[in-house]
Amino acid sequence: MRTQITFSQAIEGYLLDARARQLSPRTIQDYTNSFDHFRRWLDGADPQIQSITRDEIRRFLDWLASTRAPHNGIADRRPQKLSPKSILNIHTALSALWTWATSEGYADSHIVRAVEVQRPEPPAVEPFSRDEIKTLLSACRYTEPYSRPGKAECRNERTTAERDRALILLLLDTGARNGELCYSPRIDKPGLLNRHIKRRSSAVKVVGKGTKERIVHISHPTMKALWEYQLTKEDAQPSDHLFLSSRGYQRPLTTDACYHLIARLGERCGIEECYPHRFRHTFAINFLRNGGKTLELQQMLGHTSLAMVKRYVRLAQVDLEEAHKRASPVANWRL
Questions:
Q1: Residue pLDDT, tens place only, 39-71
Q2: pTM value?
């Protein structure tokens, strides 16, 4: 075995290796946050990684399930209990650390693999309906109605109407992730820039996980909405962020701001569970429902494997089964 190193030194060595292997900034940040949870549990101690036991890893994961962890985001929020998915992610990060430590000779055995962790059921995937999308797009145009004493009820045009309409149509038309369109401040990922819009080919270049680029095609209504939005941006440069926080300001729209924008629009429209990733689900299921192929969908969504695409296939088949029950002339005519 090599010279013994502490847990902190192991983290430093692993992160150097992760950057050399060009892991995505998002993955490195998530793993760093996971390691910080273990540091909190160690409460100031920094033991040699070789001395950490399987039982300590197990007690740490039990502690995560019963302790409120601080929020790692920018906004000031109350500590929250970690979900089974978050605990699984931390287990995955520690497993990656021990994989590196054992391969480099700093640990004798991979103690993390010997500790089982609960694998949560995947969350329910429910696409938006056509009527819900139309309602959301209508909500982009005007503010909520309001009234003043002695005057009729009225509403104003929203200053970000063109931006919000273009954003919703682009999310729906491409199945792109929030972080592929908007600025991610935690990992300094820019999202879409003006130069990424390819008008002649009706396409958009997006940068997905692991800085993997892909070209996604868009329909004419979406391209028109993007063009109308870009008309509202004065002195826009090709290298500028496409989606800005508001008209007249050059600050980029962040992923958190996009999430809250979609949630607020959904609340106004009476739509529950309204969040950016749901547009991705809606695109995928409708793509398959309308005859799209699984490999094509995998490329469009930027998935490295078919696992999630196969889940969409199952959901689309269930959707078709329900549609057949509603539309079958034999069933409805009671023949």
A1: 999 999 999 999 999 999 999 999 988 876 555
A2: 0.73
Contact (Cβ atoms closer than 8 angstroms) between residue 322 and residue 285: no
Q: Taking Cα atoms as reference points, which of 115, 81, 82 lies closest to residue 98?
A: 115
Q: How far is CA 48 from the centre of its chain?
A: 36
Within its chain, how far is the Cα of 292 from the centroid?
23
Q: CB 183: neighbour CB atoms within 10 A?
A: 24
Contacts of 187 (CB under 8 A, 6+ apart): 24, 25, 26, 29
Encode pLDDT of 71-117 as tens digits.
554 444 455 678 888 999 999 999 999 999 999 999 999 999 999 88
Whether 219 contacts 174, CB under 8 Å:
no
Q: Which CATH class is domain 7-104?
A: mainly alpha
* Residues with Cβ within 8 Å of residue 101, at least 6 apart in sequence: 10, 14, 49, 107
What pairs with residue 154 in β-bridges?
A: 146
- Taking CA 202 as the corner, what is the angle to CA 200 and CA 203, rounded to the nearest 5 degrees? 115
Domain 130-281 belongs to what architecture? Answer: Orthogonal Bundle (1.10)
Q: How many helices and strands, by DSSP H and E, does the chain display?
A: 13, 5
Give the SS3 label for residue 154: strand
Give residue for tokens 């090709």: 238
Angle between helices 255-269 and 130-141 in degrees, nearest 10: 100
Q: By the 8 A CB rule, do 280 and 315 touch?
A: no
CB proximity list for 17: less than 8 A, separation 6 or greater = 100
Identity of the residue numbered 138: S
Domain boundaries, the chain: 7-104, 130-281
